[in-house]
Amino acid sequence: MAKDRGDVSINTLSAEEDIEKVVEREMAAAKENSTSANVEVATRRKPKKVHRQNSKEGNTNSGGFVHKARSWKNSRRSRNGYGRGLPKKGGAGGKGVWGKPGSELLEDIEDVNDPNFDTELDANDVELKVVVPQVPSESLKKKCEPIILEFFESNDIQEVMQSVEEMVPANLRDVFVQQAVEIAMDHKPSHRELTSVLISDLYGYVLTESDIVKAFENLLANLSDLILDIPDAPIVLGNFVARAIADDCIPPRFIVDIKEKSDETIFQEALVHADTLLSMEHGLVRLDNVWGVGGPLRPVQALTRQMNLLLQEFVSSGDAEEASRCLKELEVPHFHHELVYEAIVMALEANSEKTEKAICSLLKAFDSSVQVTRDQLERGFFRVFDDLPDICMDVPLAYVILDRFIDLCRLEGILTDNIIARFPSRGRKRFVSEGDHFVTRDKLNKSNSNNEY
């Protein structure tokens, strides 16, 4: 029994020790839990206080107006107290956001993660230059051609200046000058005069001396190709060079400097022609009319004299093509009625069937090629009809010759019904009475019988 009691006491002591250990463990665990709870409480985010306001409470309307339920229901006001959901600070707040629109232009900080980032690049060593894309000369010539052709019609230099500034790069202005001269060489003398005036007016504004010099150098180098389409290309280009020197667009030493660049015959011919024009007496003054005076600016007397020479040369040679070329060079399509008038008067004064047939064939050739329009033809005939009484003073048989010439033109199909209807005829002298008529007839019969004997 004693042994049993001893065993019980031993077991009791071990149980008490176990209880103490359990209590210590629980206290340590409670302490740890309280510490972690305090940390969690300290780090826990406090909930945002949401302030709600009833529409019926605190109404600031002066009249004590209370919104109805439906109007409050359809209101666009935020109901959650957090605003409308827009980004903070206009997109500039917070981490990992894009930032305000346009803020990337104001940033000076370089991104090291950028694949184009260069650590050895210094911002002070960067130099920005304007890069102008190179335009092929052929495509640029196609753009310049309508500008030049429109200028021939309108003569508006300001429009050309604006178009050149907008469409032609500054380093390719010589292509514009070259294209203008090439087009003018294939046109009439009046167009060449306009081109020379255009180059002179654009010089100092959109064209420089180097542009014009380079253009003429290219034209002289391509002279062998230009002569295929323009047989007198060396003479025409020499006129352009001399005119540009007279207008102070290129220096006089240009001819001396470029003579040694080529030994071709046509190349030297153009330069010799330009040098001859400049070295003649009062050459710089005369070069103002190197292309001649245009048709609209030419005096009427000079035009009439040229038309008379044209008609006389045709009557003697019979070359209708040469007469047509001379008429085109006058460049006065509105004044062709003067040619018709002078041609008819020449036929009346000649009183020769050969001259009448030649004039009729010339008018037919002009009418067939529509070089002289029907309107100009009719106007020339009507002018002769109106001046016929004065013409009869120099040509007494004018009515008879004109009648014969009208019949010849009618057979050739030149005359219109309007011209034939207005053809005048010389009126007969009126007798005072029928008795005078018979008396006159009796006198004529007696005179005729006396003459027979």
TrEMBL record:
Composition skew (Gly residues), residue ranges: 82-99
Pfam name, any one: MA3
Cellular location(s): Cytoplasm
Top-level taxon in the UniProt lineage: Eukaryota
GO biological process assignments: negative regulation of DNA-templated transcription
Main location: cytoplasm
Homology family: Belongs to the PDCD4 family.
Name recorded for this polypeptide: Programmed cell death protein 4
